[in-house]
């Protein structure tokens, strides 16, 4: 009867009982139990084993939730304690208690299986959060970021996961405070309505910093810890290049941080290392293939690519796929003609067209141009190459834009690494490396769960730079978070650098890939940064600020608001309401704060709110949280800036004129030739990802405010086909940062007694 009622609402539901009936050695029994424990199709597990095989170790290997005979210590303990409603009672005991009436023991076991199935069904549904927020005790003056982080004790990550409705088998725990979340959750919650989607962007960056990550964390702390609204922050994983270089970490700051901040800023769970390994495997495959094709006959090359093993010669799965693409309808390696063997074996890569570079997650200017292949073993094959920073790898962009393991594998295979001598694209799939790349990336695709200082959830996943890539965290993290927060909740994610770069790419690239529609943009500004845009003196790291930045200067602020007004106008191009968050510093005066908020509203902002989360945590951003909730209720009229079917040149021109304010664009001969090649190869209908300085709306970093009447030079154009965009290079752009005279690493150290990291910020 119970089963019939359950199946009325869930027709596909069938509770399954597995019985292990053996008389083998104990070790193999436990292996079988553990296997069935993880099988989501099985709801109940019973043991029928010989007396000699019984032991506590065997019985307690069963998951209590599947122990329908009630033999595990956990189920027996609950029964003894009087909590029979929370456990499975032994069918034998129940049958004896009811004096072996009609039903008998097997019926009670079946009842337990149905109960287990009902519990499983209940777990599959969305559950309300039962979040316990952590209390803050802000100090004044505000201590260093790492001191604040270390003073707070984070919740165990499995506790946090349970509080927000994740099931035990949906997380993979890394230490005490990090976990990966499995993508199976998306299938479980596929019918759950999404929450509200908020993007945090900023004005054009300055060396003074605007604090987008801090605002993102302060906002979710305010929403959840102070307004009792479910919210999730989705952030990028920082590259270790800037962490040890000049910028420092990216976990937020003050009393609005992700904790533990040293784990956030360093290796995390190894995703960037996985990207580095995958990227460099592909780079090695390219040059190795060129070498072997240059030094072997067609027949020798073919015989090595398809060797005979124990007298049997077979194509691998990926080689069969290559045959199909070539139009060769054969599966027996021994039946190919000489021409077919040559066609299959030779990629004929033109070394001058190789665009795939090796990567390293360290700022190292001396790897910007190198010569590879100088050893005698490479038989005279050498060429000029370079290293990029790891987060500039196309594999990072693929990770950030994919929506499933299958999609990631397809995208990795589509990555174009060079052209052959007839001008056709050569892909990772052609090189036979797609499967290996997917294996290296199989764990990196799962978002990383962490928490804020106030115990609210954060996803940290993917970390492409915004000036040389699309600058946004992963689609998968956003999609999972939108399901977990529920229909009334909020997901707050951040776009790199200014709205003209990170936000434009979020809308035109990320939202196209994800199909998600943003509800609100939060635009971050500071009085100090606006003063620089208004003509304030230059700023050098390590040198005290000049008095223009530490004393009230209304004219300078008013002049600098032109940049804020321009970024508001850019947001309005996409039809999304914008709330300005003014990140307040102690040197800001009330008159300066009021002026910025007033000018922002006049420029079309839905609201403009001063924020104090850095000094007091989430309660300092409650006004911002309320403004965001109100703006989200107004509705979004989101639209893309351009139609992807437009020619590549027109899409570039649209961004340059509508977003940056350029008069026109100017293509170098190389850029023009690349555009023609990509169009001919069938890649003309991809969105555009501009690689441009983040320090100005123009291509000249020293041009602050709102530059006008400039011609935007396009020096080169490249293609990230796996990621799914064309990226023009504006002016001179480096994809490998360098170290300054005094890098951050001078201050970073380890206390060898306590193993605590010092000096990170």
From TrEMBL:
Xref: SUPFAM superfamilies: Aminoacid dehydrogenase-like, N-terminal domain, P-loop containing nucleoside triphosphate hydrolases
PROSITE patterns documented for this protein: FTHFS_1, FTHFS_2
Known partners and oligomeric status: Homodimer.
E.C. number: 6.3.4.3
Organism lineage string: Eukaryota, Metazoa, Chordata, Craniata, Vertebrata
Keywords: ATP-binding, Ligase, Nucleotide-binding, One-carbon metabolism
GO biological process, one term: carboxylic acid biosynthetic process
Cellular component aspect of the GO annotation: cytosol; mitochondrion
Pathway entry: One-carbon metabolism; tetrahydrofolate interconversion
EC class (word): ligase
GO MF, one example: ATP binding
Name of the protein described by the UniProt record: formate--tetrahydrofolate ligase
Pfam short name (any one): FTHFS
Gene3D superfamilies per UniProt: 1.10.8.770, Formyltetrahydrofolate synthetase, domain 3, Leucine Dehydrogenase, chain A, domain 1, P-loop containing nucleotide triphosphate hydrolases
Membership in a protein family: In the C-terminal section; belongs to the formate--tetrahydrofolate ligase family. In the N-terminal section; belongs to the tetrahydrofolate dehydrogenase/cyclohydrolase family.
């Amino acid at each position: 009867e119970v089963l019939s009622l359950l199946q009325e609402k869930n027709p596909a539901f069938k509770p399954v009982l597995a019985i292990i009936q053996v008389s083998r050695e104990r070790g193999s029994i436990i292996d079988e139990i553990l296997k069935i424990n993880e099988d989501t199709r099985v709801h109940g597990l019973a043991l029928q084993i010989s007396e000699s095989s019984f032991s506590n170790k065997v019985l307690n290997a069963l998951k209590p939730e599947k122990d329908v005979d009630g033999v595990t210590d956990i189920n027996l303990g609950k029964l003894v304690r009087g909590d029979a409603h929370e456990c499975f009672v032994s069918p034998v005991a129940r049958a004896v208690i009811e004096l072996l009436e009609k039903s008998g023991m097997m019926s009670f076991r079946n009842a337990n299986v149905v109960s287990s199935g009902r519990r499983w069904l209940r777990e599959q549904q969305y559950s309300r959060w039962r979040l316990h927020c952590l209390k803050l005790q802000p100090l004044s003056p505000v201590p260093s970021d790492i001191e604040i982080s270390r003073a707070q004790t984070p919740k165990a990550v499995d506790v946090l996961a349970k509080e927000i409705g994740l099931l035990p088998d949906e997380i993979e725990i890394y230490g005490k405070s990090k976990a990966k979340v499995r993508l199976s959750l998306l299938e479980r919650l596929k019918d759950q309505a999404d929450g509200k989607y908020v993007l945090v962007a900023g004005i054009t960056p300055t060396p003074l910093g605007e604090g987008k990550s801090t605002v993102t964390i302060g906002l979710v702390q305010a929403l959840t810890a102070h307004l009792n609204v479910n919210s999730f922050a989705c952030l990028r994983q920082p590259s270790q290049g800037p962490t040890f270089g000049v910028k420092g970490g990216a976990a937020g700051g003050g009393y609005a941080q992700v904790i533990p901040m040293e784990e956030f800023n360093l290796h995390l769970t190894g995703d960037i290392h996985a990207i580095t390994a995958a990227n460099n495997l592909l780079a090695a495959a390219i040059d190795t293939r060129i070498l072997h094709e240059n030094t072997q006959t067609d027949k020798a090359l073919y015989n090595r690519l398809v060797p005979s093993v124990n007298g049997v010669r077979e194509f691998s799965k990926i080689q069969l796929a290559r045959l199909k693409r070539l139009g060769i309808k054969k599966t027996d390696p021994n039946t190919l003609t000489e021409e077919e063997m040559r066609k299959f074996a030779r990629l004929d890569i033109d070394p001058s067209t190789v665009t795939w570079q090796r990567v390293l997650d360290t700022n190292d200017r001396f790897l910007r141009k190198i010569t590879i292949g100088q050893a005698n073993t490479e038989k005279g094959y050498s060429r000029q190459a370079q290293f990029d920073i790891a987060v500039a790898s196309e594999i990072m962009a693929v990770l950030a834009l994919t929506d499933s393991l299958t999609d990631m594998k397809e995208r990795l295979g589509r990555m174009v690494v060079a052209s052959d001598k007839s001008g056709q694209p050569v892909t990772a799939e052609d090189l036979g490396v797609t499967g290996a790349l997917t294996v290296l990336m199989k764990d990196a695709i799962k978002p990383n769960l962490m928490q804020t200082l106030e115990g609210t959830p954060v996803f940290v996943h993917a970390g492409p730079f915004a000036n040389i890539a699309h600058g946004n965290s992963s689609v998968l993290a956003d999609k999972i978070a939108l399901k977990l927060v529920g229909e009334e909740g909020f997901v707050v994610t951040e776009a790199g650098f200014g709205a003209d770069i990170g936000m434009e790419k979020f809308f035109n690239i990320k939202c196209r890939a994800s199909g998600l529609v943003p509800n609100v943009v939060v635009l971050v500004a500071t009085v100090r940064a606006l003063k620089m845009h208004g003509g304030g003196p230059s700023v050098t790291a390590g040198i005290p600020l000049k008095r223009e930045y530490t004393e009230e200067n209304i004219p300078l602020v008013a002049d600098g608001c032109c940049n804020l007004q321009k970024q508001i106008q850019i947001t309005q191009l996409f039809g999304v309401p914008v709330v300005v968050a003014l990140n307040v510093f102690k040197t800001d005066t009330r008159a300066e704060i009021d002026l910025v908020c007033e000018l922002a509203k006049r420029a079309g902002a839905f609201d403009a709110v001063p924020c104090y989360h850095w000094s007091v945590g989430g309660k300092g951003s409650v006004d911002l949280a309320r403004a965001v909730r109100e703006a989200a209720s107004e509705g979004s009229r989101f639209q893309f800036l351009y139609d992807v079917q437009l020619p590549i040149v027109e899409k570039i021109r649209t961004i340059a004129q509508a977003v940056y304010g350029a008069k026109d664009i100017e293509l170098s001969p190389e850029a023009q030739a690349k555009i023609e090649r990509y169009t001919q190869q069938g890649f003309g209908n991809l969105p555009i990802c501009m690689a441009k300085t983040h320090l100005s709306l123009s291509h000249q970093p020293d041009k602050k405010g709102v530059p006008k009447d400039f011609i935007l030079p396009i020096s080169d154009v490249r293609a990230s086909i796996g990621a799914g965009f064309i990226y023009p290079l504006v002016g001179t752009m480096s994809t490998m940062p360098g170290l300054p005279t005094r890098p951050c690493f001078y201050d970073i150290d380890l206390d060898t007694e306590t193993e605590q990291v010092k000096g990170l910020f």
